[in-house]
Amino acid sequence: MINSEIFRQYDVRGIVGEQIDAETYFLIGKGFGSMLQKQGLNKIVIGGDARHSSREFMDAFINGALETGCVVTDIGITATPILYFAIWKLAQDGGAMVTASHNPPQYNGCKLNLGMDSVFADKLQDLLKLIQQEDFSFGSGKLIKNDTIMEQYCDYIAERIDIKRPVKVIVDAGNGMGGLYLPKILRRKGCEVIEMYCEPDGDFPNHHPDPTIEKNMSDLSRAVVDAEYELGIGLDGDADRIGVVDEKGKMLYGDQILNILARDYLAINPGKPIIADVKCSKNLYDDIKARGGKAIMYKTGHANIKKHMKEVGVEFAGEMSGHIFLADRYLGFDDAIYVSCRFIEIVAKTQQPVSQFLADQPKMYNTPELHIECEDSRKFEVVAKVCEELKKEGYDVNDIDGARITFDDGWGLIRASNTTPVLVTRFEATTEARMQEIRELIESKINKYLKS
Hints:
With 452 residues, this protein is of the alpha/beta class. The protein folds into 3 domains: 4-150, 3-Layer(aba) Sandwich (Alpha-D-Glucose-1,6-Bisphosphate, Chain A, domain 3), CATH 3.40.120; 167-356, Alpha-D-Glucose-1,6-Bisphosphate, subunit A, domain 3 (Alpha-D-Glucose-1,6-Bisphosphate, Chain A, domain 3); 365-451, TATA-Binding Protein, CATH 3.30.310.50. It has helices at residues 22-37, 54-66, 80-89, 122-132, 149-159, 182-188, 218-227, 254-268, 282-290, 302-312, 336-348, 376-392, 432-451; strands at 12-15, 43-48, 71-77, 94-98, 107-114, 117-118, 142-145, 168-172, 192-196, 231-235, 242-245, 251-252, 273-277, 294-298, 316-318, 324-326, 365-366, 370-373, 396-398, 403-407, 410-416, 422-429. The strands form 4 sheets. Strands 1, 2, 3, 4, 5, 6 and 7 form a 7-stranded mixed sheet that branches. Strands 17, 18, 19, 20, 21 and 22 form a 6-stranded antiparallel sheet that branches. The protein has a 5-stranded mixed sheet with strand order 9-8-10-11-12, sandwiched between helices.
C-alpha cells in the first residue's frame, strides 16, 4: 500500500525507508505509465539525483512503467533541468525525476511531467487515486539508455550564451548535481572558475544544498572575498534554484537576482510582462514598472508559475525561492545552470561590481521568509480568517496566494506553505521600525486564530 502523505502539492517526497521505498517507486512508475497509456501516450524519460537511494528507486520506477507497455529512456544520474531538457529534445510524452531537491539526505522524492507541464496538485492526486484503485494498464515496454543528452544540454546552453569577457566566478554546487555541468560550461565560455563542493555526494557533507539560506552560502561568501573574485553562484541539490553572492560576499536574495535579470531583459524587450511571486520585494515590482515592463504578482510555487506563464504568454518569471524561468532565448523551465550563465552574461557586459547593480534602489528593510508552525489541517483556515479580517478592516489585500497586505511604506505577507505544516510570513518597509509595526499587526492576528 502506498503512503498518501508523500503526495505533496508539487511532487512526491518522503523519508527513505519510513515513508518511501522501492515498492513505492514501482507503483508510481506503474501508475504514471498507466496515466499516460490512458491518454494514448507511452514515452517516458527518467533521471535521478545523487542521493544514495536514487538509482535503486529509478530502476523500480522503470520496472513499473515497463509493465504498462511504456517506452522508457533512462538518462542516468543527472540534474532536474537536464531531465526537462530531455523531455523537449527527445520529444517525450512524460518525465520522471527522482529527487528530493534541497531536502536533507534521508529524503527522496519524484517530480513528474506530462510533456513540459508539471504534474501537481489535482493531477498528482489523480495519480494517487489511480494507484490506490489499481487501475493499471498492462503491456510489454521497452527500455532505452541514453548517455549523450548531458553533452547535448551543455552544447545547447553554450551556443546560446554570449559572455563578453572572462568573468571570475566561484561555483558552489552544494554537492548536488549542478557541479558536473555549470563549471564546464562557464570555462568553455572563457570564465575563470573555482569549484566548491562540485562533486555530487548524497550525504551533502559540507552544507545543506539550499542556496537561499545565508548560512549555507557562508563558505562561498568567504571564498569569493578571499580570492577577490567577482561573484559566487550557489546551486541547490538538483540545480533548479540559484543563489548569488557579490564580490563583497553579500548574498543576493531571489528577488534581487530576478531584478538584475529583469533590467537586462527589459532593456532588450521593452514593455514586456514579468511574473514574480507574492514573496518578492516592492522594489522589484516598482523597478519593473519604472523600466516600462508590466509586473504581474502571482502565486508561489514553480509549477504554478510555469503554468501561468503559458496561460498568459509570458517569457520571464521568477520567485523568491530562486526558481527563475526564462522562455526568452531558452525553453521556459526553471534551470539554475542556464540562469547562472545569463547572470554572468550581464556581469560580463560591464566593469561595475555586482554589489553596485541595484545601488540606485531605495533602501528597504525586510525579513527573510519566516515560518510559524501550524497543523496542515488548520493552516489554510487560519490564513483565510486573517485575510478576511484584514479586508473587513479596510486594508489593501491581494489574496492571489494567502494575503499580501500593501501599505504606502511597506507590506506584509501570510500564506500557507504547500509543502510543510507551517504558515509563511515576510515583511518589508522603508524603515526597520515600520517593518516591525507591520509584522506585529499581522502576527497578532495570526496568533489570535492559532489560539482559537
